Amino acid sequence: MAEKKPIGTVLVAGAGISGIKAAIELAEVGYKVLLTDASTQVGGILAKLDYQFPTDHCGMCRMLPMVGREYASQYCMRKSLFHENIEILPFTEITSVAGDGGNYKVELLKKARLVDPAVCNEMGECIDVCPVEVEDEFNHGLTRRKAIYQAIPHNTPKMLLIDKQACTKCGECVKVCTTGAINLEAQDEVETREVHSIVLASGVKLYNTREFEDAKSYAVSPDVVSSLAFERMMSGSGTYQGDVIRRPSDGKPAKNIAWIQCMGSRNRRQNRDYCSSICCMFALKEAVLAKEKGGPEVDTTIFYMDMRTFGKGFQQYKDTAVEEHGVKLIRCRVQGVMLKPDGSLEMRYFDPDTNEFFVKGYDLVVMSTGQIPFETHKKWADLLNAPLDSRGLLETEQYSKIKVARKPGLFICGSLMGLTDVSEAMSSGIAAAGEATNFLTSLGVDTIQEEEILEPIAHERENPLVSVALCKCGEKTGADGLDYELLSAELQKYRGVGEVHVIDSICKAEGETATADIFGKTKCNRLLIGACQPFMYRQKLKNGARKAGFHSSLVEIFDLFGIARRGMVEPSKGDWTRRAAKEVKADIEKLKYKPALHVNTLPINQTALVVGGGIGGMQSALSLAGRGVQVHLVEKEAHLGGYLGNQVEHTVDGLAPKAMAGEMKLKVFEQKNITVHLNCEVEKTIGTLGSFESKIHARDTGENTYLHHGAVIMATGGHEGATTEYGYGATDKVLLQGELKKGLAGGSIDAGGLENVVMIQCVGSRQKEGRHYCSRICCMGAIANALKIKEMNPESRVFILYRDVMTYGFFEQYYTKARTAGIIFMNYSLENKPQVEMVEGKPVVKFMDTVLATELELPADIVVLSTGVDPEESNQRLADAFGVALTDDGFLAEADSKWRPIEFQKVGLYLAGTAHSPMPLKSVIMQAEAAAQKAYTYLSGREVHSASVISKVKDALCIRCQRCVNICPYGARSYNEVDKCIDVDPASCQACGMCAVECQNNAAEVTGWSDKQLMAAIDAKLMDDLLMSTAE
Amino acid sequence: MDLQQGSIKDLWKAIYNTGDLHHCFNCSTCLSGCPASHGDPPLLVRNLARMVILGLEEELLNSDTPWACVSCSKCEEMCPMDVKPFEMILAIRQWQSANDETRVPPSIVEIYKRGYTQAVGVNTDLRDSLGLPELKTITKNPEQLKLFQEMLMKTPVVSANDYMFGG
After folding, report:
1. Angle (deg, nearest 10), helices A422-443 and A615-626
2. pLDDT band for position A479 (cuts 50, 70, 90)
3. Which residues of chain A does B51 touch, with a Cβ-Cβ cutoff of 8 Å?
């Protein structure tokens, strides 16, 4: 008999968004995940943010799985996360790690919360009686909290805990707690767990203005706050409950707000010669929101050094912030904030636009604080015996941002790679899950198989009879608690109710027995359960009910305590019971008319189609093929490698894309699971997740092939942009960076003969006419070439004319290196571009030096243009073939720029690399790995189950107007040309209900949310009010 | 200005040959809080760094602004790139003096007269209102000032130009 294989288990250390994403992706494949966080709750920094650009809203829930969403209970992600395969351990530190990849023994220190969240009924009376008040760190000390408290105000469950340092052990909270959840003597627990792989997603320490010397001349008053504190000042759950932004010192509305960039970052003097990557966009967003909240009279100014708008859509956001919202940008790093004797703030700055000094007063100054990475990296390196690189960061494999060097099975993601924005946190989380899955696959461990419970017959044709089970929460409900007797009697009388049970603690063992007992005896065919935390026990209770014979779609669970108390000021026992009765009646009505819902099973063709044979495409293909998935790799050119793999010898960070692509090509041709289709383009694709059919057109022979596959990855890449500016094309003395790179490598350009070289950045880029985006790699590319010239000819002079140097993150070190090597960087503005004239066969560059405010001119031997990256022209044909959208710039439009960066709205289609936006080599590889993982989640099984709650079409009522097709945000609806009807793709449909709202004929409906049900629920509530008012 | 004609590529080596200067990325920190930037013409430290890097010899030789520096060291303290701008200013002064024997910085006259380039003895009322002690400047001690002036007179730059010092 074959030995039973262990279930693959992964520790994800850090439950910020990248950790959560990695955990969800691993759990979706079927691995067991331990998700720990050193802080008291999950969510990381994002728990503090109400708004993210570009939408300036939250959107965390968009990171949840799109298929099988009923298994990862879909609630607001800022509240909490629930997934059957994820064990969440907040307030847990990793104290030691023994063993190696495949066999880690991890010692966890589970800190005592002193409040047991499994027992706590969250009524919060303990908070009311607690006499101790301290600064609330969640609001950065701007508000105060009790010693017993809820760490995040919007958490569900509330997860109360006691601050041991602050607690005086007076015992008042213990006295009022009706459930016995508080134990002031509870001790920390140590537990050892075995895991196969570890993903580090802890983020890094952030710059704290109270701690560091160089912040002293800025942090001079309570009105100087950090950018995260400012976020809390804007938040609906923050300092001012979402009201206008005020000065912490005196509570007056802040009308004039300034941001200071690079606080703590880009500082060689303090050994922090790096950029924190996210602060420019963070400040822009905060400035826009401050304007929106406070109205036009609010003045916002950002003091910056380089406005690093390098990501997808960043440049547009910046332009809108400046042009439409009136956010002022001033390129000056101020020396400090002056505190006037009257408490007001003042800053003196030099305005390079006017060449004048100004002294201006501000109500509030926000410091854009960045990362302090070295401490965190050192801690992990010591704990895991992992290598640090020369900078003091965890060393990753040469071409990977994820895999820790020489430590198989150990991966990093999120801000541990350097502060990342949401999009990169998502990609890296998925990619880390991908690498861990690769590793677990190589170990041969198993995945968790879903428990097969036979779905009982839904007696939906019988008269509905509802069994109501109410949890009494330990029999110790306080004086103002629910009157269960009255409530039961009231509900017993209600039409359609078969029986009412009151159960002591439905969540505990004795409650479970009682529940099973009721299920066994009942004659009812529908079940309504009222409990305190329906989120936590949903799946458990549903499974129990299913075993007892209830069809799972005919079981509803509701929040008995929250629903009744919400919005009531100091309710009396009677009020509460009355409100509860009304709410339960409405729920009964909704359940009575609910039809039985069925899960759709979609067969999966375990084959992937990868479009584009560049480095990204090859990486995705190799990753999937290595895990046993069949891959069709389609490339429109006659050879693999793409632009990077064929044209670029070396990068600034010492990588050799061309050599690397050469090795990958060999691997691709050796890999038997990959079929390469060269000279081919995809013409048309039809189908849905699991069963697509694509028509492939061979460009050389004209032949058409039809491929069948279950998922698609688009990795179409890009190429160096074209230009006619600065005399390019008219003389060989003006060339592109790519041409210079090749010339230097091939010897056709002799660096020894170059006395003066001028490079011009952002040619045709970051402007509305042309490439309205930053290509992200050109600053690094120019620096690499400039350093090469200086290396070959130290006597040469190299000038780089730039608008903003985009050496974000740890790329900053190459900018510093370039300046040290004597390369001269000069800033120019879009309004005052350099001029190139040919004089006696030599290009003469004329430009304004903004520092000296002088017109300079220089006869250069060569002028080199950084034209950026253009998307492939074939993207348009591809977008048409797959029915996906392009951005205005011609790149593929992902489902959500922050939360779903590598997916399309349509489930089963993914994108990677420059098809998304221009990015450096390591980011391409990371995205390719992430896209492979997304596809693998579905391709690893023979079938997937869609959600049971999806929209449907009542065909007899449908007039085929297709308004629902156009409005569906998930591309789930389509017009079937053959059968002349509307189709709904059950995998893509997210049951948002837009179609039901749009449809004029009521032909579109979300199952389980019919008009009939909702009308009945409303009637029940109105009827109750009517009866009450008549009685009074 | 034509950089080919008007600049000397390696001038920085003669003026301020340290590894620090080239780190400058023109962030303007040195400007924004500089007391001498209030002068006319203002001392613009960032611009001096740029002139040294570009090798603008003539402009540098003719600039009086390095002598306006009041040695407060704020730029030195706050420079994120550790360019050590104050050191650079001293280096520029030395280089100017070494390369232009006609340069007699007007600030030497000020120093001769009152021991400082700036009028630090003023603002006594403001100091008093802030509870700061009175500054013990050398002008308040005529005997020592006399000794100080005699000492200065022994230096070649002062004695050779004694007409400027009331001599």
Report:
1. 40
2. very low
3. 852
- Give ipTM to 2 decimals: 0.87
| CA proximity to A559, closest of A575, A580, A545, A542 | A580
- Which secondary structure element, helix H or strand E, spans residue A108, and what is its range? strand A103-110
Residues 6+ apart with CB under 8 A from A243: none
Q: What is the CATH number of the domain that holds A144?
A: 3.30.70.20
Order of strands across the sheet that contains A674-677: A674-677, A630-634, A607-611, A711-714, A909-911
Query: For B38, which residue in chain A has the nearest alpha carbon?
Result: A357
CA angle A322, A325, A326 (to 5 degrees): 55
Return the structure tokens found at A63. Answer: 């990171």
Query: Cα dist. B119→A228, B110, B124, B167 in Å?
Result: 44, 9, 11, 22
Chain B residues touching chain A at CB-CB below 8 Å: 1-4, 9, 19, 22-34, 37-38, 42, 46-47, 50-51, 53-54, 74, 78-82
Give the nearest partner residue to A348 out of B2, B32, B46, using CB atoms.
Answer: B32
The predicted pLDDT at position A14 comes to 96
DSSP state for residue A122 in the 8-state scheme: -
Specify the pairing of strand A674-677 against strand A630-634: parallel
Chain B contact set for A347 (CB, 8 A): 32
The SS3 of residue A573 is helix
In this predicted model, what pLDDT tens digit does every residue of A653-666 receive, in sequence order? 999 999 999 999 99
Residue-level pLDDT at A46:
85
A308 close to B (CB below 8 A): no
DSSP A287: H
User: What's the token pair of residue A469?
Assistant: 């089970």
Considering chain A, what is the average pLDDT of its residues?
A: 90
CA-based nearest residue to A618, from A636, A640, A638: A640
CATH (one of 1.10.260.40, 1.10.472.20, 1.10.1060.10, 1.10.10.410) for B3-99: 1.10.1060.10
List Cβ neighbours of A910 (8 Å cut-off, separation of 6 or more).
Answer: A711, A712, A713, A714, A902, A903, A904, A931, A934, A935
Min distance A845 CA to chain B CA atoms (Å): 10
Contact A825 B37 (CB under 8 A): no
Q: What is the pLDDT of residues A967-1013, one digit of tens each?
A: 998 888 999 988 999 999 888 888 889 999 999 999 999 988 888 89
A724 touches chain B (CB under 8 A): no
In this prediction, residues A79-97 reach a mean pLDDT of: 88
> By residue range, what is the domain housing residue A713?
618-631+648-717+872-941
CATH number at residue A681: 3.50.50.60
Cβ B1–A855 below 8 Å, yes or no? Answer: yes
Per-residue model confidence (pLDDT) at position A54:
73
Output the pLDDT for position A188: 95
Using an 8 Å Cβ cutoff, are A1028 and A605 in contact?
A: no
Q: State the pLDDT at residue B62.
A: 92
pLDDT above 70 for A398: yes
